[in-house]
C-alpha cells in the first residue's frame, strides 16, 4: 500500500473483533511513531500499551472521574453510566495511550512538542492501516484531565495526546465527505501584503466532481481577482 492510498483509505474504526493483535504489529506501529518530525530531536512522545486486564485501571480511573461529576452517583441511572464508563477501554483489544512529555530545557517550545506527538499519532494510524488493522484516535475531556497524566507517572508538564484503540476491524466505516483542499488553500506567488491576498476559492469554483483534482488558483489581474483552474494535459 503506497502512502497516498493509505492516507485516503484510512478510517476511524469504532467496532473491533475480539482477536488479539500480534505484538510484532504493535511494535511496528510504535516504531513508525518515532520517525515523526520533532524539532531538536527532543523525542517527546511516551507510549503506554494496554492489553487484557491491563486496561482495567484506566477504566476504573474513567469511572472515578465521571463519578466525581455526579450529584448522586448511586442512582440506578448513574450506576449504569459509571459501568459503561469503566468499560470504555475494553472496546478494542489494544489501547495505546500516547502522551507528550516536553523537554524541560531552554528553547524548547511546548506547542512544538505537542505537534511532534500529533505527527507521531498520524504515523501510528497509517501504520496500523497498512498492517491490516483498524485504529481510532480518541481524546475528549478525560484525556486532558491533569490527573490522567499523573496516573501514568508523567510530569506536571505532560499531557495525554490521545487514546489509540487498535484491533482487527469488525466493520470499516464508509469514507466521510471531505471538502477539496482548494476550499482552504491560497496560492501566493506575488509580492503583496498578505491581507490583500485573494480570498479562498468558493466551493462552486472547484472542479465539477467536487474532488479538487484540478487546483483552483486565485490570481490578481489588473487589480481584480479571478479564479482559474489548471487545465489537464
TrEMBL record:
Record has Lipoprotein as a keyword: no
Key word Coiled coil present: no
InterPro entries the UniProt entry points to: NAD(P)H_nitroreductase, Nitroreductase, Nitroreductase-like, YdjA-like
Highest taxon, organism lineage: Bacteria
Pfam families hit by this protein: Nitroreductase
Cofactor(s) required for function per UniProt: FMN
Domain Nitroreductase: 7-168
Region called Disordered, residue ranges: 195-233
Keywords in alphabetical order: Flavoprotein, FMN, NAD, NADP, Oxidoreductase
GO molecular-function terms, A-Z: oxidoreductase activity
UniProt record similarity statement: Belongs to the nitroreductase family.
PANTHER family: NAD(P)H NITROREDUCTASE YDJA-RELATED
Protein name, per record: Nitroreductase
Protein's organism: Brockia lithotrophica
